[in-house]
């Protein structure tokens, strides 16, 4: 942007005033028109939806999905307009935000027409593959792969959160907590968890947090639902999410200060704390290699957020 362009943009933003109710579908429709009419076609562009309240026009996820623009609901990746949703405060509608995120995740694979009418026999050249299944496994064959085990833990925890959230929506908090507690006990007994895997430790903390937020229906409505849905979104795409006051994320806290029970420290400080483990992209890595990382928070993501928060106040981090 030119200097005049930047000044014009600032004036436009400062002239915005909030009034009336909350109509998320209308906002997304406007954003979609801008998205589709833009001159510069950045291939990684997307819409970011931020909301801190209840929608006054749609009271259910299904009603909201029917009102969304066709490009948001499209399952064609070429026509799809990606939307990232962020809910703020205890009054935002976590169900609707999750429904918008979850739209269009299913897909259809067309294998074409398998024409058997010609009755032609096609020979396919391939190699023979044999898998040995010995009657007695050697000690080496019985060793569990920690990388496979940690990913199995991730899938298992994601399934437990989804099952518990479904019971919580029906008012069965006792059953929801029982599922999370049982899965947490199972997780702690896995080889990866016993080996001190950082991801497994974060998954255990996540299960404990969501269990605590399902203590009562009021608490579940305030924070439990949003935390559970956010966790489900995170695990389904193996992508980072921020969930406010949580002990599994460092993204929402200011470095060197305590937030939500966890101390987020600078890169230099963490080099002096080798006992901390990274749960990010590198399995079983020491925290000396990167800032404290959440389950799906890459090291570069955490550094970027910390640098942004310290911009203009400190240049010691980087």
UniProtKB/TrEMBL annotation:
Residues 201-309 form the VWA-Hint protein Vwaint domain. Residues 7-104 form the VWFA domain. SUPFAM superfamilies: vWA-like. PANTHER family: CALCIUM-ACTIVATED CHLORIDE CHANNEL REGULATOR (PTHR10579), RING-TYPE DOMAIN-CONTAINING PROTEIN (PTHR10579:SF146). This is VWFA domain-containing protein. It comes from Rubus argutus. The lineage of its organism: Eukaryota, Viridiplantae, Streptophyta, Embryophyta, Tracheophyta.
